[in-house]
Amino acid sequence: MCKFSLLLIFISICCSHIAEASTPFQQQFPLSCIPDFSQDTLPKGHGFLSVGSDGHFYWANGERAKFWGINVSSTRLEIPLHQIDDTVALFARSGMNMVRFEAIDNRNCILGSVNSPNSLHLAPVYLHYLDEWIAALHPYHIA
Length: 143
Known about the structure:
Blueprint: H1 3-18, H2 25-28, H3 38-41, E1 49-51, E2 57-59, E3 69-73, H4 81-93, E4 98-102, H5 124-137
Parallel strand pairs: 3-4
Antiparallel strand pairs: 1-2
């Protein structure tokens, strides 16, 4: 098993624990216990992304772009606000530079409860959580 597979398993365990933690995440899983891969993938100051003649992605400075991402499920969008920052810091230290908010456009998430009369009105509470996630991702240049 490669180091990235092991890292992904560890991150999955940590992230599933975040939603159920009764004590601060940093006390249970300090970021220092994860190797810092952030310099390998985070695109700080590289400029625009383009496709090279070989079909690979490159930054404006000629460096090949690397992507490492994760899904945040609709069932994990609504975690305590203070844990969002801890989770995003974990993502960044792990070298992740992409996050996909998976299945948030469904009932019991952005579209409101199952009992909502229609899908024309979005649930304010979930929009607030989504805003918090995006605001936490921004300083790390995670898209």
